[in-house]
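Ops channel
N.P.: pipeline sanity check, posting one input/output pair.
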């Protein structure tokens, strides 16, 4: 006895449902998503650099005596800048690789 007669489900319906399920699970990895992520990375790095500069100015003017906040802000800014530079270098290497491809 065929199950599709009982439930009125054909194999085309099952294939379409499976295709829709896989499309929903795929991540949005088009160029605009990658570009926006890179812009967010640059903006976060800029914010951390600004925070580190403001902590440095507060410490230099005597408004803050807490060296821990200064060191933490400077370390975060340094790590964020290093990460941003590493991502930039990888993006440039990928671009150069793509430009050398034979079409």
């Amino acid at each position: 006895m065929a199950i599709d007669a009982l439930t009125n489900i054909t194999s085309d319906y099952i294939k379409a449902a499976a295709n829709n399920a896989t499309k929903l699970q795929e991540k949005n990895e088009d160029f605009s998503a990658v570009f926006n992520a890179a812009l967010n990375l640059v903006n976060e790095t800029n914010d951390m650099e600004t925070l580190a500069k403001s902590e440095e100015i507060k410490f230099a003017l005597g408004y803050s005596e807490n060296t821990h906040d200064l060191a933490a802000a400077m370390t975060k800014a340094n790590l964020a800048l290093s990460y941003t530079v590493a991502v930039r270098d990888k993006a440039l290497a990928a671009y150069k690789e793509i430009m050398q491809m034979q079409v």
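N.P.: looks fine end to end. DSSP finds four helices and no strands in the chain.
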